[in-house]
Amino acid sequence: MTKVPIRLRKRAEFLFVYGGEKRIGPFFLLKMRKRPTNPFHPPRFGFTVTRKNGKAVLRNRIKRRLQEAVRIVQENLESGTDYVVVAHSSVLKVQFRHLVKELKRRLQKKVKKE
C-alpha cells in the first residue's frame, strides 16, 4: 500500500496556496503553489468541500473519493509543491476512473516557478 501525501490543515497553508496557479476542471478546481523555503520536501495536499455540496455525509464522501484519487496519482506530484482541491458536487456522480484520469490531466502541466 502506498503512502498518502501529507495533508494541509492550517488556514494559513490554504491561503498561501490560493495565491498560486489554478486549473479549472469539470469535477474540481485544482490550486497549486511551489513552496519557496523547502523545495525538496514531499508534496502536500488539502481539500475544500463547501456546504453547497450537501450535508456532512456527502461532503465526507467527496473528500474520501478525492483522497483516494490523490493517493493513486501521487507519482505525478511535484516535490516542494502544495495543492488544494476545491470540489464540485459532480465528484459523486462521475465514475472513479474518470475522476482519476481528470486529476492526472490537471497535474500534467508543469507548475510555474515563482
Task: Give descriptors for this structure.
5 strands, 3 helices, alpha/beta, globular, 114 residues, 5-stranded mixed sheet
Describe the structure.
A five-stranded mixed sheet has the order 1-4-5-3-2, with helices on both faces. The chain is built from three helices and five strands, in the order βαβββαβα. With 114 residues, the protein is α/β, with parallel strands linked by helices. The longest helix has 17 residues. It is globular. Helix content is 33%, strand content 22%.
Report the sheet with the most strands, covering strand number, pairing sense and barrel closure: 5 strands, mixed
Number of strands: 5
Gyration radius, in Å: 13 Å
Q: What are the secondary-structure elements, in order, as H or E? A: EHEEEHEH
The span between the termini is 34 Å
**Outline:** globular
Provide a compact summary of the structure.
This protein is an alpha/beta fold and 114 residues long. The protein has helices at 11-18, 56-72, 96-108, and strands at residues 6-7, 21-24, 28-34, 44-48, 81-87. The N and C termini lie far apart (34 Å).
